[in-house]
Amino acid sequence: MNAPANALPDATRCPLCGGDNRCAMEIQRATGEVQPPCWCVGTTFDPDLFKRIPDAARGQACICAACVAAARS
After folding, report:
1. Domain span at residue 34?
2. Which of 60, 68, 65 is CA-nearest to residue 7?
3. Higher pLDDT, 8 or 17
4. Helix-strand-coil percent breakdown of the chain, rounded to 5?
5. Containing H/E element for 25?
6. pTM for the full model?
């Protein structure tokens, strides 16, 4: 079953590939358990990667490490 068109993207999933994004900030928000800094804090993102995020998902979910690595290769 597909999600309704107005449903917010899943913040635990990458908006590009749908994989687990392992966002520590989202894990902390969901569980209330303090997390170490997210892996993305020390990562440089290619600006073109952000352009690939669908409009409805912008600012709603983190890009995963696999997509960041793929953009570098």
Report:
1. 24-72
2. 60
3. 17
4. 40, 5, 60
5. helix 24-31
6. 0.77
Token pair for residue 41?
């804090």
12 is a domain residue: no
User: Is 4 contained in some domain?
Assistant: no
Q: How many domains does the chain have?
A: 1
Tokens 């960041």 identify what position?
A: 68
Is 18 inside a domain boundary? Answer: no
41-65 per-position pLDDT tens digit: 889 999 999 999 988 888 888 999 9
Residue 14 lies in a domain: no
Burial 28-66, CB ≥16 within 10 A → b, else e: eeeeeeeeeebebeeeeeeeeeeeebeeebeeebbbbbe
